[in-house]
Design goal:
The complex is a heterodimer of chains A (270) and B (304). Chain A has 270 residues and is an all-alpha fold. Chain A is built from eleven helices and no strands. Chain A has one domain. The radius of gyration of chain B is 22 Å and the shape is globular. In chain B, helix 5 packs parallel to helix 6.
Chain lengths: 270, 304
């Protein structure tokens, strides 16, 4: 293959983002060890503690567990979707602020032929890569426990975890890109991520929530992700509802994308 | 290479650049000299095609930054005021990933990285983390980074601000070599010695406008005298003494800590001051510099 010796403008956003592959690969080589616990170990500890040990006290009644025959079967898909969300929160909050404000790495990047959208796509791509490997390991480790009704269901659940990741990644990226300092992140994690994690139907059927709380839970993106994942892993898919879940998450991802481009452009181009 | 006509930049109600005309030719080294806040960096960011033009026209390599930003940026090199290096990556990796942003092949970039490390004398630091480098080394690395795409124009925004004198000289030496290789260089600085050393032609900027233009020598010849006698008296005496020596020089400037007497022959002027029975604590005779030009044109010094 002939080596390219002349500097050029990229032909599009994706080809621009692809030029940042080496940057993110080198960055990951440097940091992957530090992310092993959150990526691979923590979710499995949750499964062990909640699914196996706590789940041992819970009666596996399909009529109260949204069709699951054991609590492990019920909680595993919830944890998978929640894991996708958790990884994304970590990846597009402080790191984004670091590259905009602390190290100004983005400014170096956009002094080249690359533009703001290229930089965002590459960063989101990396966040999704983190989601993908973490969730893939989760799926592979959980498979022997019989939590997946079918191979297709497991594969579908994995793909949904990517969609959940993207649906959270774009709006939170947008939020981070415009923040002047890091103090709001504490709220994002404590009042955003934690309640979502606990009350979006990952650990208990949201039918247990009082009327209006249930409405609130159903409005959250994580619930759509959890419910969709659970349908797939249990092999009991309500297709019209599944379509609504996909649509909801996709719309969120797209809106977040436009917001992200707008906020980062405003921040960097003046 | 760069052509600006009536170029303006506003941030809300604040006008940082108020209509400037600039014409930079191939192979020349062109300087923007002025104090902080003169509009130099705003101009530089527009030329680097990262900041939209607010008014007037700007062409870089014949291209319009509004529509051809990526194309322009692929052909220029930028050394920003702040280093924007990735401090957690090694010296080599910083250059390598940067080369990839320009769409260059991996092998080509690796070869250039080695060449450039050699050029900026960082070969031995190739595998060090950037955060462990000194300020001067970071600057040289940023300069090396700006050369990775073999740019047709090199933009340097305050290349030696914040460096100690020795580190500055190392940077100047490297930039001088680039200049000799025929690289078109555009730099901003608020150091008159830097402007004198590195630019063939320069504009003096103040408050968003160009107040003078020419080669360092022609600017000095036009706006100052050949020599300057600097006289230092006791605290608070300068105003009063200025009145007594006014007729001895073409022009007298009163600074907080000294008097500047602009004259053709500094030694002779100092002798005449002594003849009048005035005894300065310190005297210094020197050639006029761009600092004097700036003082003449704006009534202020470059570095406050």
């Amino acid at each position: 293959m002939a080596e390219i010796e002349t500097s050029t403008a990229p032909s599009g956003v994706l080809s621009g983002a692809a030029r940042m592959f080496d940057y993110w690969a080198i960055a990951y080589k440097r940091t992957w060890k530090g992310s092993v616990i959150t990526s691979f170990v923590s979710p499995l500890l949750y499964v062990l503690a909640m699914g196996v040990l706590l789940g041992g006290f819970i009666e596996g009644d399909p009529s109260t567990l949204e069709g699951a025959t054991s609590y492990l079967d019920f909680v595993a898909p919830g944890l998978l979707a929640a894991q996708a969300m958790t990884i994304v929160f970590g990846e597009v909050t402080y790191p984004v602020m670091g590259m905009v404000k602390w190290h100004k790495t983005y400014f170096g990047m956009t002094a080249t032929p690359l533009g703001v959208p290229d930089v965002i796509v590459a960063h989101l791509g990396f966040a999704l890569f983190r989601v993908a490997i973490s969730c893939a390991v989760f799926v592979v480790v959980m498979a022997p426990f019989g939590v997946f009704a079918s191979v297709a269901g497991a594969l579908g659940a994995f793909l949904v975890s990517l969609l959940v990741g993207l649906a959270f990644a774009t709006p939170i990226y947008a939020l981070s890109a415009g923040l002047k300092d890091e103090s709001p992140f504490a709220l994002v994690f404590r009042l955003g991520m934690m309640p979502l994690f606990l009350f979006s139907g990952a650990f208990f059927p949201i039918a247990n929530l009082d009327g209006w709380l249930q409405v609130v839970a159903k409005a959250t993106p994580l619930w759509h992700g959890v419910d969709l994942t659970r349908m797939l892993t249990l092999g009991d898919v309500d297709w019209p509802l599944a379509a609504i879940h996909v649509l909801y998450l996709a719309v969120l991802a797209v809106l977040g994308w436009f917001w992200a481009v707008r906020r980062l452009t405003k921040r960097m181009v003046s | 290479m760069i052509l600006a006509q009536g170029l303006r930049k506003s941030f809300g109600a604040f006008e940082a650049v108020k209509g400037i005309d600039v014409d930079v030719r191939r192979g020349e080294s062109f300087g923007f000299l002025g104090p902080n806040g003169a509009g130099k960096s705003s101009t530089m960011r527009m030329v680097a095609a990262v900041s939209p033009v607010s008014g007037g026209t700007l062409r870089i390599l014949g291209l319009d930054p509004d529509t051809d930003g990526p194309e322009i940026r692929s052909r220029i090199g930028v050394c920003p005021q702040e280093d924007t290096l990735d401090t957690e990556l090694t010296v080599r990796d910083n250059l390598f990933v940067y080369g990839r942003y320009f769409g260059l092949g991996r092998k080509v970039v690796r070869e250039r990285v080695d060449e450039l490390l050699e050029f900026v004398q960082l070969t031995e630091k190739a595998d060090a983390m950037v955060e462990d480098l000194s300020g001067g080394m970071k600057r040289r690395l940023t300069i090396a980074r700006s050369l990775i795409n073999r740019p047709e124009i090199l933009l340097l925004d305050e290349p030696t601000t914040g460096l100690d004198p020795q580190a500055r000289h190392v940077v100047w030496d490297r930039l001088f070599r680039l200049k000799q290789q025929g690289v078109t260089i555009v730099l901003t600085t608020h150091y008159m010695d830097e402007a004198e050393q590195l630019s063939d032609r320069l504009v003096v900027m103040d408050k968003g406008l160009i107040v003078a233009e020419g080669s360092p020598l022609s600017l000095i010849a036009e706006h100052s005298t050949r020599e300057v006698a600097e006289l230092r008296f006791g605290v608070g005496e300068h105003e009063a003494i200025a009145a007594k020596v006014e007729d001895l020089a073409d022009r007298v400037e009163v600074l907080p800590d000294r008097l500047l007497l602009y004259t053709v022959d500094g030694e002779e002027t100092v002798a005449k001051v002594h003849e009048r029975g005035l005894e300065p604590i310190v005297t210094l005779v020197r050639r006029s510099t761009l600092e004097d030009v700036f003082l003449r044109l704006t009534g202020r010094t470059l570095v406050d």
